[in-house]
Design brief:
This protein is α+β, with helices and mostly antiparallel strands. The chain is built from four helices and seven strands, in the order H-E-E-E-E-E-E-E-H-H-H. 39% of the residues lie in helices and 31% in strands. A four-stranded antiparallel beta sheet has the order 3-2-5-6, with no helix packed on it.
């Protein structure tokens, strides 16, 4: 509870920093928050932003999961992001026309995704489990990492299919 209160206070201060520029003239700070499957902030998540094919310098989230792309023109942006051992956030289209809004995006740790696949498998939802497993596998391959949990779940899935 104390951690949640600190996150709320930090988010409020962050919001004030993003929204404190008077006379919004079509430029403002695009502010956002990255959280995990437990609604906990994700630190050091790399966030990418582009508009009309123009890429903006990527930013990292801070310890509160917050990020800022400063002084952007209002308009449509594509936001994505990544961090090792987390599922990638695919390009999310965001219409930036109100500098007081904070964009909140959620990701999942690989471990949580694999546990979800295991749960789906247990419930007999083999196709859904395979979809989760495939996405996690692709992310793992992209990051060139492997986990024992993934290998165990893959073996269970193969056993279920037989």
């Amino acid at each position: 509870m104390k951690k949640f209160m600190i996150l709320c206070i930090a988010s409020g201060l962050f919001f004030l920093a993003c929204a404190s520029k008077p006379d919004f003239d079509g430029r403002g700070d695009l502010c956002g928050l990255i959280i995990d499957e437990n609604n906990k902030p994700v630190k050091d998540f790399i966030v990418y932003c582009s508009s009309s094919g123009n890429y903006i310098q990527p930013v990292l989230t801070n310890e509160s999961g917050l990020f800022v792309f400063p002084s952007l023109h209002s308009g449509e942006y594509k936001i994505s992001g990544e961090k090792n051992n987390y599922l990638r956030i695919e390009k999310v289209v965001y219409r930036f026309n109100n500098r007081t809004n904070i964009l909140c995006l959620q990701t999942k740790s690989f471990k949580a995704a694999l546990l979800k696949a295991e749960e789906l498998l247990y419930l007999g939802q083999t196709k859904a489990a395979m979809d989760v497993l495939e996405r996690t596998l692709l992310e793992n391959i992209k990051k060139n990492t492997s986990t024992d949990l993934f290998n165990n779940l893959e073996a269970k899935l193969e056993e279920e299919i037989k």
